[in-house]
Design a protein that fits this description.
2 copies of one chain form a homodimer. In chain A, 31% of the residues lie in helices and 24% in strands. Chain A is α/β, with parallel strands linked by helices.
Chain lengths: 328, 328
Amino acid sequence: MINAAVYDAHGNPAEVLQMRTQPWPICAPDEVIVAVRAAPINPADLNQIEGKYPIRSSLPATPGFEGAGVVVETGSEVRHVSTSAHVILPHNLGTWREACAVKATELVVVPSEIDLVQAAMLKINPLTAWRLLHDYVKLKAGDWIIQNAANSAAGRAVIQIAQELGIKTVNVVRREELVEELRVQGGDAVLIDGEALRDDVKESTGGAPIRLGLNAVGGDSALRLMNCLAPSGTLVTYGAMSLQPLKVPNGLLIFKDLRFRGIWINKWYNNASQAERIETFNRIFDMAKRGLLHTKVEKAYPLNEAKTAVVHAARGKRDGKIIFEFGD
Amino acid sequence: MINAAVYDAHGNPAEVLQMRTQPWPICAPDEVIVAVRAAPINPADLNQIEGKYPIRSSLPATPGFEGAGVVVETGSEVRHVSTSAHVILPHNLGTWREACAVKATELVVVPSEIDLVQAAMLKINPLTAWRLLHDYVKLKAGDWIIQNAANSAAGRAVIQIAQELGIKTVNVVRREELVEELRVQGGDAVLIDGEALRDDVKESTGGAPIRLGLNAVGGDSALRLMNCLAPSGTLVTYGAMSLQPLKVPNGLLIFKDLRFRGIWINKWYNNASQAERIETFNRIFDMAKRGLLHTKVEKAYPLNEAKTAVVHAARGKRDGKIIFEFGD
């Protein structure tokens, strides 16, 4: 038997989440059984439990878009994954459970040098950061980009991947105490959000054109980013921490020719071929092996403390991710 | 001597516009002199006089982004344009004057079958409509698009050009009495804007995906268009009649992958080669020769009634353009 977090109805995660025991999963010929070792709590997980995510799961459901584990059984037709391999799980299984059956072709094998807790957090944020820097504006070394929410896990991944690519970053944060920390992380400019942003940015970049903005906040913060972009620049939205819609002055569309896009990494993942996924993961693994793209963990919980963990994860001010860790 | 409308300071057009006499223009070797025959009053002209246009002219200035006339003198080096040719003027001269000197290479020669009053209104609206239908989403015959402000000059041009290309149009208007009129013009579906729009559109199109939306209103009307677009669809803004910014719910960017762009036809015109301009104009002239792309004129004024004319043009409810006509 295994333990799994389950909800029977959408609602407040702390209220609707329950622990259930389930039978050990059955392994089809093309599947493997993965013993889950780590699974983070992402905002999207909480939204899904609340019923606010665009794709609703059939209920009862187990949450968890991310996770990593160890292969403990392989189906008779499985060739390219063997037991004891470390793997990243796909996002449609529900990772908040001790074990699951997965099609072998859906797994990404992780190099053994990478800690499984860190591996469990490579699929959403670093992958989002990688695609944000590759799929919207053709950038070359020396170009500048700007992002808000620079202290988020995705924001920190953007800083490090940009540095890897020779792209310079203007990082916008709300708290003064983050400035030094993000500079050390590799941020070329770290600025406090506010009315003076546009001037501060100009001073930091020497007026260099910024053709890509990355927005995870929305509302006024997004508007301030727009005003820092060069004509024909692109603002890509991947989050909405302020819960405010984008307000786009018509002149920025008509006269400044700004372009507005969004990214949903799970959709990218679904549409990509396994070869494309692995190509991106290889670059990310290469950085992770060198100690980069390390995600801070504020606290790890055992799965049976799921209610406490989701309350903790929902708190605004944290200093790292909340994650489930499972014993061997 | 010639008469010209001039303003010395930005402000209310009815107050700041004055009539001045100016010397007959001097023709440089690469220039021609055009006797202006017709020049419409566009919203952008009023904005420019008010100082609300993104490019300010050096003052004193003569307004007028559009106009057509007859070549009456040619410079010694001019080869491919001859006197008595009908021409469309470029947008950076100020057309609200009886005559002007223009570089011959900046002129577009109009087939003589096309009335000069109509020719004077082909550069902004039909050209905008043409580019809207060609530069943002790859459309093929049978595809649907949706637009608001369908009764505007640009909106009517969109209907006719789309029909020419075999593209089907959903046309959104505010007044019931326009429905029949725009159907006759070629609109495949003509619907009243409002909360039921999304359902009405589905019924009209049989649920066909709409990948391009054209927005000249902004605010809530633009939001209703967004909700009618298919996933990964594009909304292009070319006007802002409501004076309200676009409000873009984050989910439409992140989960629905909608894309937002804008067009400024004067910028397109500046960036295009003369060959590209003429290629588009030839298609537009071809339609105009068949009586299509006819712009309704509510009233023609002589230039010395410019103050009255701009007041008339600023009225919300009109049944056609206000235009200046000049005697032979």
